[in-house]
Amino acid sequence: MTLNDDRRDGHRDDKRARPETAQSRFGDLASPLIDEATHHASALNANSDPEELHKLRVALRRLRTLFWAYRPLLDEEFDTRQRAVFKYLATSAGSARDWDILLELMKELDVEGLDEPAKERRAAVLATSIETIANADVKHVLWTGLKEANQELNTGRKRVPVERFAKKRIDAARTQLKKRIKRALHAKQSDYAAYHEVRKAGKKVRYLLEFFDPDIKPKLRSKVKSLKRLQKRFGALNDVVASHDLLAQGTLPIGDSVTKHALRALDAEQKQRIKAARKAIR
Fold first, then answer.
1. Rounded Cα–Cα distance for residues 106 and 257 (Å)
2. What is the CATH code of the structural domain delimited by 20-96+110-160?
3. Residue 190 backbone dihedrals phi, psi, to 5 degrees
4. Which of 50, 80, 87, 203 is positioned for an S-S bond with 100, CB 3.0–4.6 A?
5. d(CA 62, CA 250)
6. Are residues 66 and 33 in contact, defined by beta-carbon separation less than 8 angstroms?
7. Which stretches make up the CHAD domain (predicted)?
């Protein structure tokens, strides 16, 4: 082996030993989410399964959380704009999904008289959602956002080891969650906004733990299971509140007696789910 061979091997060893950075990890985290979102967006049609909408919304929410994690390394204006795009698209997908949830709840609570009107309304909302998402050119928008983010991250001078970056951002999200839990425990039971903030903060921590799973300690990984339980309780509460809001808007052509009966059933269910949610954070 020549001296030049030794130098080349040494250079390769140094490169392998170099710690991975947060900047280099970003594309690996974002690309599968973009693939997932574009797949579900392109599969939407008038007969779409409710799960298709749900999966699209989840992929977009996870992307929004990922950009939140990288906010310290990105231009603030660019980051704010990108996350607004994710929110807009997720809301469009969620509009029809909300009617699916209402239909499921009415069946669960044995409330009759809303099935056909709600299905008709859901079909109209879905048609609007499909048109909105198609006009938004989801594939182009998401991949362009990734390209711009990668360019910004890779042209910055400072490189941050991914382990240190992950710990810092997860700590920030967990601190936010603790504050919101404290606020919710001191809030009135009727103050749903406080519970909703806990739900969003808990989801953010969970997504970050899943993103950076290879880079965190086992003790942190074990938190995912309890966060899933928290998300399930608070998600169940959110379903009732969102359904109540839909009915209260009065957009369904149904009689007052049917509406009042459904709202009373949802009110009673909401009280039960608030109790379950509070129990999960005590």
1. 15
2. 1.20.120
3. -80, -10
4. 50
5. 32
6. yes
7. 19-282
Q: In this structure, what DSSP letter does residue 189 have?
A: T
Let me know: does 231 contact 199? Beta carbons within 8 Å: yes
Architecture of domain 162-282: Up-down Bundle (1.20)
Provide the residue count of the chain.
282
pLDDT tens, position by position, 159-194: 999 999 999 999 999 999 999 999 999 988 778 999
- The four Cα atoms 46, 34, 237, 229 give a dihedral, to 10 degrees, of 130
Among 280, 272, 279, 173, residue whose Cα is nearest residue 225: 280
Residue type, 189: Q
pLDDT band at 158 (very low <50, low <70, confident <90, very high): confident
3-class DSSP state of 181: helix
- What are the counts of helices (DSSP H) followed by strands (DSSP E) for the chain? 11, 0
On the question of a common fold for 20-96+110-160 and 162-282, the answer reads: yes
